[in-house]
Design a protein that fits this description.
Elements lengths: L13 H7 L4 H6 L5 E3 L2 E4 L2 E3 L1 E5 L3 H5 L5 H13 L4 E5 L10 E3 L2 E2 L1 H16 L3 E5 L9 H11 L14 H15 L16 E5 L13 H17 L4 E3 L26 H5 L7 E5 L1 H4 L5 H23 L3 E6 L10 H20 L4 E6 L22 H20 L3
Helix pairs in contact: 1-5, 6-7, 7-8, 11-12, 12-13
Length: 409
């Protein structure tokens, strides 16, 4: 993933923009209450909430460059027009010249002001944020960088998987969590922990610990870190960032992700009391390479059925499909094939929500706007350039919104 150049931040007041633009006031008012859960439902002001959303990992990095901030605003504006109400993005960038966290406890205030702007602008457009706290992968630092920081202090660490067990590394992570959650937004004056614009904290993007297939290492880490977040911030939901791979606690579930035993366990990890809802990342074109589109759709439907069923019957918690998509880089790709996949995901979500099931929404990977060619990874959606996909997204937003209204008191 591309690292973006950073320039000096100009202190723009997002609040003053809100005051000047009355058309967005109703959106701002919508974000005044924190999201809760009740059984398999997200709740807003005592009513069930169903959401349609998107991923845009790049928001903070882009917002840290004043000449690029308009792309953040444009993305939120286009998303809002299409009824999207939740965005998932990175609240981390560890090590390197453009880092949010240069070294343990040492932060780049200009990058932090970029995140301040993202939160402020999201509120302006009635969009809530799932903020991820660290990466499993090397992009933007991740667990490898945390482990290296500990090695630099003399820790004897053999594997990056010790991110999950080494006490020094865990201390670094806990300090980052506290710094982020207790930060006061320079534009709004509101501490992140008190800002209902934030939908949830995500402990890690796609945690994996392949060196311990039993799942005990990640189980212990999620338990400890979810409790740590909750000890600081009782307002917000917490989720683990899991891809949804089944583990030892479900022999039947293992059949849905053959060959993908990576130290996580969809059932036991999400049964942890500090985890408020379950997540699933599904990319059939990556799980079933060189197979037909029809085979991939069948796999997708089976995966969704299993996770919705288990979230409903075993976990009794909401399920969000927090990543899904189809790459345009595969041979024979055309937009209608991606539209078919979006329709399949959206239909499963809607049918579950309509009948009282656990599926509460989904977030496609990934939203870009014009002028961001360097961030294209094959899965990008540009709403203004793909009208058929935009119509499918808007339709899902409308019917989930109507469903929320239908269940309102």
């Amino acid at each position: 993933m591309a690292m973006l150049a950073q320039e000096t931040i100009q202190d723009e007041s997002c609040d003053s923009i809100i005051q000047d633009d009355e058309s967005h006031n109703r959106h701002a008012e919508a974000a005044e209450s924190f999201i809760r859960t009740n059984g398999v439902h997200f709740m807003l002001n005592g009513n069930p909430l169903f959401v349609n959303g998107f991923n845009a990992y790049w928001l903070m990095n882009m917002a840290s460059d004043p000449s690029q901030r308009d792309k953040v605003s444009t993305a939120f504006k286009e998303a809002s027009i299409n009824g999207l109400t939740v965005a998932r993005t990175w609240a981390f960038n560890d090590g390197g010249s453009n880092a949010l966290q240069y070294s343990p406890g040492s932060y780049n205030e200009q990058m932090f002001k970029g995140l301040d702007f993202v939160i402020c602008e999201a509120r302006r457009y009635g969009i809530r944020l799932i903020l991820s706290l660290v990466n499993n992968y090397d992009n933007f630092g991740g667990k490898k960088q945390y482990v290296q920081w500990a090695k630099n202090q003399g820790e004897n660490i053999g594997s990056d998987d010790e991110f999950f067990s080494n006490s020094v590394v865990k201390g670094y992570y806990k300090n980052h969590v506290k710094t982020l959650i207790t930060r006061y937004n320079a534009q709004t004056g509101v501490a992140y922990m008190n800002d209902p614009t934030i939908f949830a904290w995500e402990l890690m993007n796609e945690p994996r610990c392949p060196s311990d297939a039993s799942g005990r290492t990640i189980q212990a880490w999620i338990t400890e870190m979810a409790a740590h977040v909750k000890s600081i911030d009782s307002n917000h939901l917490v989720e683990a960032g899991l891809e949804g791979f089944y583990g030892p606690s479900s022999s039947s579930g293992l059949q849905t992700n053959p060959g993908f035993q990576l130290g996580t366990d969809f059932i036991s990890n999400n049964q942890i009391s500090g985890i408020d809802f379950a997540t699933l990342h599904t990319y059939p074109d990556q799980m079933l390479t060189n197979s037909s589109d029809q085979s991939q759709l069948q796999f997708l439907n089976n995966t969704l059925d299993a996770h919705i069923r288990d979230s409903s019957n075993i976990l009794n918690k909401p399920l969000l499909v927090t990543e899904f998509g189809k790459t345009c880089k595969d041979p024979g790709y055309n937009c209608s094939k991606r539209d078919d996949l979006f329709q399949a995901v959206y239909s499963k979500i809607y049918d579950s929500a309509r009948t009282g099931g656990a599926a509460a929404g989904s977030l496609f990977w990934q939203l870009l706007v014009e002028g961001m060619d360097s961030l294209k990874d094959g899965y990008e959606v540009l709403l203004n350039e793909t009208p058929t996909t935009a119509r499918i997204i808007s339709s899902q937003s409308r019917r989930l919104g109507l469903l929320s209204q239908l269940h309102s008191k």
